């Protein structure tokens, strides 16, 4: 037997989260607009590339999230990959504040979705498909517009937010 934990019928969610924390991820804010045009956004770490042809990405949202009906109805969204300068935003956009965009530099992007102006990268997408993902809904987005900056991306791993090391080490 290897040093890996034995697969058991019942998984301890805290231990699973600890194991998943060993895989660092980028940190992003997904944004859209509600039925009256107001900006809506929340912190995600479940974002990745799916396909280059067509250009598809995915992210997921918990079924209990209050904003789920807004994202289902919106028809699209923007993924704002956070820069190291935005380390205060993940907590802000996951908190119950009424106006998450207050004091945050943003603009309406080419696709009509809120775009954070200091992001490391932005992907504006139309909703391509939605899928069941257990206690989450998986959103596939077709990338319509995208942009990257020279800003250092923010990374989350082992329960911490840190800037991506850019010292050239591989």
In short:
By secondary structure, the chain is mainly beta.
Please provide a written account of the structure.
The chain is mostly beta strands. The protein has a single domain, classed as Pnp Oxidase, Chain A (Roll), CATH 2.30.110.10. It contains 3 helices and 12 strands; from the N terminus they run αβββββαβαββββββ. The strands form 3 sheets. It has a 7-stranded antiparallel beta sheet. A hairpin with a 2-residue loop joins strand 11 (154-157) and strand 12. The model has no long low-confidence stretch (mean pLDDT 87).
Please write out the topology.
Elements: H1 13-20, E1 25-26, E2 28-33, E3 39-44, E4 47-52, E5 55-62, H2 68-74, E6 76-81, H3 89-93, E7 106-108, E8 114-116, E9 121-133, E10 136-148, E11 154-157, E12 160-163
Antiparallel strand pairs: 1-11, 2-3, 2-6, 4-5, 5-10, 6-9, 7-8, 9-10, 11-12
């Amino acid at each position: 037997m290897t040093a890996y934990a034995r697969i058991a019928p019942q998984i301890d969610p805290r231990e699973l989260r600890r194991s998943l924390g060993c895989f660092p991820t980028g940190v992003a804010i997904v944004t859209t607009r509600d039925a009256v045009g107001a900006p809506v956004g929340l912190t995600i770490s479940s974002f990745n590339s799916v396909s280059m042809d067509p250009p598809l990405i995915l992210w997921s949202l918990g079924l209990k999230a209050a904003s789920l009906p807004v994202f289902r109805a919106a028809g699209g969204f923007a993924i704002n990959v956070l820069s190291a300068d935005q380390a205060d935003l993940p907590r802000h956009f996951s908190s119950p504040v009424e106006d998450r965009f207050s004091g945050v530099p943003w603009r309406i992007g080419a696709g009509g979705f809120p775009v954070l102006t200091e992001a490391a990268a932005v992907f504006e997408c139309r909703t391509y498909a939605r899928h069941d993902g257990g206690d989450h809904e998986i959103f596939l987005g077709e990338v319509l517009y995208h942009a990257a900056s020279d800003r250092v991306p923010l990374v989350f791993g082992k329960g911490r937010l840190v800037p991506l090391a850019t010292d050239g080490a591989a």
